[in-house]
Design goal:
By secondary structure, the protein is of the alpha+beta class. The chain contains three helices and four strands, in the order ββααββα. The chain has a two-stranded antiparallel ribbon with strand order 1-2. A two-stranded antiparallel sheet has the order 3-4. The two termini are 29 Å apart.
Length: 145
């Protein structure tokens, strides 16, 4: 979690703004603050990519990388912050080595619980779980065998 999304928690956002800004206010006022929101989104994505590259450069004793042995998830609990819509969530899953089918865009059917992703990741990490929260099953198109 990058940080708690509280109503008016101001953040400086390293090198982006001269004065603290509220991400919550930006997400609710997208017509006025879209440029600032895009800067923040880009900043977060750049940090994610930076960490992915670092993990991919760390060699494990078996020849794999730290990224191969990690499931690194980036996303949002809201599909549209201005309306608090919680479907069509933008989520990226990286890592997982040969256990995960990578390089794909998966558009889940309407109504698919987010818990399906958490269940899938738990199973990929070796936990013998059949359900998690309101999950309806693992995401088969993510599991490489």
């Amino acid at each position: 979690m990058v940080g708690p999304e509280r109503w008016d928690t101001p953040y400086k956002f390293e090198s982006l703004f001269d004065t603290p800004r509220s991400h919550h206010q930006m997400s609710h006022n997208q017509t006025k603050m879209i440029d600032d929101l895009l800067k923040v989104d880009r900043f977060h994505m750049e940090q994610y990519v930076y960490l992915l590259k670092k993990m991919d450069s760390i060699q494990e004793s078996d020849g794999s990388t730290l990224l191969d042995n990690t499931l690194f998830t980036y996303g949002s609990g809201l599909g549209d912050g201005s309306t608090h819509q919680y479907n069509d969530l933008p989520i990226i899953v990286a890592g997982g080595g040969k256990r995960v089918y990578s390089g794909q865009h998966i558009n889940m059917p309407e109504g698919t619980p987010l818990a399906n992703l958490w269940l899938t990741q738990a199973q990929l990490l070796g936990l013998p779980m059949k359900r998690f929260a309101d999950s309806t099953g693992p995401i088969a198109t993510l599991i490489a065998g």
